[in-house]
Automatic annotation (TrEMBL):
<comment type="similarity">
    <text>Belongs to the band 7/mec-2 family.</text>
</comment>
<keyword id="KW-0812">Transmembrane</keyword>
<feature type="transmembrane region" description="Helical">
    <location>
        <begin position="12"/>
        <end position="34"/>
    </location>
</feature>
<feature type="domain" description="Band 7">
    <location>
        <begin position="33"/>
        <end position="192"/>
    </location>
</feature>
<keyword id="KW-0472">Membrane</keyword>
<keyword id="KW-1133">Transmembrane helix</keyword>
<dbReference type="InterPro" id="IPR001972">
    <property type="entry name" value="Stomatin_HflK_fam"/>
</dbReference>
<dbReference type="InterPro" id="IPR043202">
    <property type="entry name" value="Band-7_stomatin-like"/>
</dbReference>
<dbReference type="InterPro" id="IPR036013">
    <property type="entry name" value="Band_7/SPFH_dom_sf"/>
</dbReference>
<dbReference type="Pfam" id="PF01145">
    <property type="entry name" value="Band_7"/>
</dbReference>
<dbReference type="GO" id="GO:0005886">
    <property type="term" value="C:plasma membrane"/>
</dbReference>
<protein>
    <submittedName>
        <fullName>STML3 protein</fullName>
    </submittedName>
</protein>
<dbReference type="InterPro" id="IPR001107">
    <property type="entry name" value="Band_7"/>
</dbReference>
Length: 255
């Protein structure tokens, strides 16, 4: 709101004086209609002859409203929870998803919220929906699923900058749920299963390679000492006997 130095003019001051005189004539009955109580979490923007009085909000506490010339609008300064309905979003890799979220904001300037926009809450909700679709449209599905916190912070910064002139401060943005088509879920599950099988085969192959190297080294040690092969054979028999086997095969000759 541009700061204006001019006053109400002669006619305006006459009307204000008449209004004040009317309040004095009808006192104390008029006091009940002129005195307004503003709660701690509220602020009142008072209009006198269509202009914001003192260019700032009144309250909390008790304020005086002149009859016929003054009107006021109450503004709640508490944090508002705004639920973003599910939005159809086409990601960067051409996957259709449904994303919903929650925006937490509050009004820090009552004058800007009243004078600069007609319905600040509806405008903030519509802007949050549009920003959500625009931001998610520049990301792939993998980025969306893995980086929810980064995406929410990006949306919060954009919303906070856009709503600053409305007197709104965006405190937090959260992405609640990301819904993808059933066919895409099956494809992602098959891809994850194939990746797990691939890793399992790689691990098994590495284990076989390490085992073959260990067996090669063991055979070299046994070749240097023939008696160690007999001791190893006796250890194997002890292992088989501990399992309550009924038959034991002796290789001949054992030397």
């Amino acid at each position: 709101i541009a700061d204006r130095q001019e006053g109400f003019g002669v006619c305006g001051w006459i009307l204000v004086s008449l209004s004040f005189l009317l309040m004095l004539i009808t006192f104390p009955i008029s006091i009940w209609a002129c005195m307004k109580v503003i709660r701690e979490y509220e602020r009142a923007v008072v209009f006198r002859l269509g202009r914001i009085l003192s260019k700032k909000a009144k309250g909390p506490g008790m304020i005086l409203i002149l009859p016929c010339t003054d009107t006021f609008v109450k503004v709640d300064l508490r944090i508002v929870t705004c639920k973003i309905p599910p939005q159809e979003v086409l990601t960067k890799d051409a996957v259709t998803t449904q994303v919903d979220g929650v925006v937490y904001y509050r009004i820090h300037s009552a004058v800007s919220a009243v004078a600069n926009i007609s319905d600040v809450h509806s405008a903030t909700l519509l802007l949050a929906q549009t920003t959500l679709r625009n931001v998610l449209g520049t990301q792939s599905l993998a980025q969306l699923l893995a980086g929810r916190e980064e995406t929410a912070r990006s949306i919060q910064v954009i919303l906070d900058n856009a709503t600053e002139q409305w007197g709104v401060k965006v405190a937090r943005v959260k992405i609640k749920d990301v819904r993808i088509p059933v066919a895409m879920q099956r494809a992602m599950a098959a891809e994850a299963e194939a990746a797990r099988e691939t890793r399992a085969k790689i691990v098994a192959a590495e284990g076989e390679m390490n085992a073959s190297r260990a067996l090669t080294q063991a055979s070299m040690v046994l070749a240097e000492s023939p008696a160690s092969l007999q001791l190893r054979y006796l250890q194997t028999l002890t292992t088989l006997a501990a399992k309550n086997n009924s038959s034991i095969v002796f290789p001949l000759p054992i030397n």
